[in-house]
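> example.struct
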């Protein structure tokens, strides 16, 4: 057991009687702390967590309180997994892709480069076997997780200067997320994951040469346009991104069936809300960014092919290294192959 995890376990034991109110202590009432990994001020990344807080209180008639806490108020954003696992906090609102270093298999449930749009991703998760694997992976770590949000496609990079092609990224230091970061490393990029509060300062001080963060509406809010004026699309690394509500397994098991159904229903509605809102707010943001002097770029087909080749290498390496990743990715790949006939016939594009 790592020293950090040991610390969380000791903290959980010490605070159990006071800091975390259990369902047993309050009868049918539930009062949970929920750590956010993004500020509540950020569209979707944070607001979907705040919406969960509001909606669950309304649906349950006030019997379930899941209180959203800003990043660092309870624990640092990238440490919430361990805190939920050992019960130091009740729950956290995040994305499975954040935990690549701890649980590689969860990357398949966060965002897949060159992967599916939201309908296909949800179809695999809910009806193609994905959820069963997802539940089993989290259960190994004492966590029950409920998919609780989804983001529309992302942008794929902010740069101070125009990037003529994929090869020109070699030697750059970029903030990048998930499996896409591993793919860029094969092209000579030094990629790292930074928590939201650290991204703008890193760009401003030149610690990183560029970055991807999320969508235009969110990136506008972050102010990257004040430093970098070249914004690249499409977000080949994240065509759709799941967010989840991680819950300590013992806290989840203590709920009654109605309470579990209420949380699952609110989270399901949050997925719907996230997709619809995400699609609705991007075009105004893009127009505003252009008015602020940002130039929008689209990667060439040749560049996208190079990214795709690097991604395929990463998929193969991850599957060879981690059995859970292999199982989840093979499940998705099989579903996608079957889904292809419907995608090709049923959709215009």
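> example.seq
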């Amino acid at each position: 057991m790592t020293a950090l995890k040991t610390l969380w376990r000791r903290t959980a034991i010490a605070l159990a009687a006071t800091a975390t109110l259990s369902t047993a202590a309050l009868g049918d009432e539930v009062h949970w702390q929920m750590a956010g990994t993004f500020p509540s001020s950020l569209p979707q990344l944070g607001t979907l967590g705040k919406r969960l807080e509001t909606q669950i209180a309304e649906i349950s008639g006030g019997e379930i309180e899941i209180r959203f806490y800003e990043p660092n108020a309870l624990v640092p954003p990238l440490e919430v997994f361990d805190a939920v696992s050992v019960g130091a906090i009740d729950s956290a609102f995040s994305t499975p892709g954040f935990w690549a270093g701890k649980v590689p298999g969860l990357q398949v449930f966060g965002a897949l480069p060159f992967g599916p749009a939201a309908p296909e991703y949800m179809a695999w998760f809910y009806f193609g076997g994905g959820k069963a694997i997802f539940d089993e992976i989290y259960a190994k770590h004492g966590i029950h997780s409920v998919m609780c949000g989804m983001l529309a496609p992302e942008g794929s990079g902010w740069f101070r200067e125009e990037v003529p092609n994929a090869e020109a990224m070699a030697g750059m230091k970029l903030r990048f997320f998930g499996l896409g970061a591993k793919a860029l490393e094969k092209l000579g990029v030094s990629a790292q994951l930074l928590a939201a509060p650290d991204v703008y300062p890193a760009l401003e001080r030149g610690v990183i040469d560029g970055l991807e963060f999320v969508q235009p509406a969110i990136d506008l809010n972050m102010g990257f346009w004040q430093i970098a004026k070249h914004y690249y699309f499409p977000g080949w690394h994240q065509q759709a991104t799941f967010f989840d509500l991680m819950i300590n397994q013992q806290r989840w098991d203590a709920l009654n069936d109605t309470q579990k159904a209420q949380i699952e229903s609110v989270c399901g509605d949050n997925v719907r809300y996230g997709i619809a809102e995400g699609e609705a707010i991007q075009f105004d943001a893009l127009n505003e960014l252009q008015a602020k002097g940002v130039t929008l770029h689209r990667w060439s087909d040749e560049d996208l092919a190079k990214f795709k080749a690097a991604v395929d290498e990463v998929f193969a390496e991850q599957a060879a290294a981690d059995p859970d990743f292999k199982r989840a990715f093979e499940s998705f790949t099989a579903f996608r192959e079957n889904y292809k006939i419907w995608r090709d016939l049923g959709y215009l594009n």
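> remarks
The first strand starts at residue 30 and ends at 36.
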